Amino acid sequence: MSANWRVKTLDGSSAQDAARSCERGAVFVEFLIAFMPVLTFFLCLLQLALLYAVRLVAEHAAINAARAAAVVIGDDPKNYSNEPINQLRIGGARYKAVRDAALISLTPLILDGTIDGLKLIFPQPEKPDGPARSGTIAFDAMGYTNVSKVRVRLELTANCKIGLANRILCSSGLFGLGSALGLRPTRTVRAEAIYPYQGARYDFPP
């Protein structure tokens, strides 16, 4: 004679049913454990791709700024508040014309809010990543024995827009205090270009 024993809980359901009900959320928890690292990795890749796109545009803008400087520095003084040729005063009319050339190249990223700030720097031609020069910078016209060059560096403040990834890949102030204060994380993007400055001697009409 055999007897089938079935343990029941207080609400009348079997112990096996109770065990199965306790495991209903296990799959969801396991999904979250596996999904969050994959999601974070994907968002970081997306943020890196956007920063790389900013770098490409910045390099293009630096080339355009250097080419503009090679023309503007020797152009007619009447077009630049009578600033002397072969000279560039930081903050002056010729400087602003070169900066405008860079801004035109960066317009798409400025309009969508990706770029917040722009610094235009003229380091020594023979010193890549050199310090910024201030005041009035003189350039020698190209001769038979010397090749004068103009070096331009752009330093952009790029906003990191991808949530979660921007907190990982982009700076947000000292010890992350910027994130705690609600500030958007940013990253500085630098690009340099060098261009020969011919300094052709033009006869400008009076």
> Rough shape?
elongated
Mean pLDDT, rounded to whole units?
A: 84
Strand order of the largest sheet: 2-4-5
Distance, first to last CA: 125 Å
The share of residues in extended strands comes to: 15-25%
Cα-based radius of gyration, to the nearest Å = 31 Å
What is the makeup of the main sheet?
3 strands, antiparallel
**Helical content class:** 25-40%
- The run of helices and strands is HHEHHEEEHHE
Number of domains: 1
Q: What is the number of helices?
A: 6
Note down, in words, how this protein is organized:
- The protein has helices at residues 15-22, 26-72, 93-105, 107-111, 165-169, 177-180; strands at 87-89, 115-121, 136-138, 149-159, 186-196.
- By secondary structure, it is an alpha+beta fold.
- The chain has one domain.
- The strands form two sheets. A three-stranded antiparallel sheet has the order 2-4-5.
- The longest helix has 47 residues, at 26-72.
- It is elongated.
- The termini are far apart.
- The relative contact order is 0.16.
- The mean pLDDT is 84.
